Amino acid sequence: MRYRETGELHLDFHGATSATIDYLVERYGEAALHEIFFNVGQKVYKSIHEKLQRGDISGLVEHWQYFFEREKGVFKITKTADGVILKVSECPAVRQLLKLGLKPSPHFCKQTSLVNEAMCEHTPFEAKTEITGCGKCRQTIKKR
């Protein structure tokens, strides 16, 4: 897998991410988040996006599995007939923010929904992210 970091894990970067998201929205507006996270989904995660374009969801599933296990998230990945569902019961990023005494940006989860949407753009798949509670969501990637 291309996106496999193996060094020491510093979860405090989630705090910097949350603060950066707030800064971007305050300074440049929500359109900037859309542009940035779409670039992440299609350029940073280029190989996942390209696999999705070919109808192959395996790169995304492997990516989710690796990072949620690495950050000790509470999650379940379920493959369906037409895609995959990631149910997050405890997001490691939100958990870390709360541990640090930080309130997650009201835009924090947009990084997930926008990156998923970007990875699925111009592919046979569509992405839907439902926030089901603080640090909880259901991410569905399914065929259009």
- Average pLDDT score: 93
How many strands, what sense, and barrel or not for the largest sheet?
4 strands, antiparallel
Query: Regarding CATH, which class?
Result: Alpha Beta
Q: How many runs of DSSP E, i.e. beta strands?
A: 4
* Named CATH architecture: 2-Layer Sandwich
Quick take:
The protein has 144 residues and is an alpha+beta fold.
What features would you describe in this structure?
With 144 residues, the protein is an alpha+beta fold. The chain has a single domain (13-143), classed as Trafficking protein particle complex subunit 3 (Muramoyl-pentapeptide Carboxypeptidase, domain 2), CATH 3.30.1380. 49% of the residues lie in helices and 22% in strands. The protein has six helices and four strands, in the order ααααββααββ. It has helices at residues 13-28, 30-44, 46-53, 58-70, 92-99, 110-120; strands at residues 74-80, 83-90, 125-133, 136-143. It has a four-stranded antiparallel β-sheet. Strand 1 and strand 2 (83-90) form a beta hairpin. Helix 1 crosses helix 2 (30-44) and helix 2 crosses helix 3 (46-53). The longest helix is centred in the first third of the chain and has 16 residues, at 13-28. The mean pLDDT is 93.
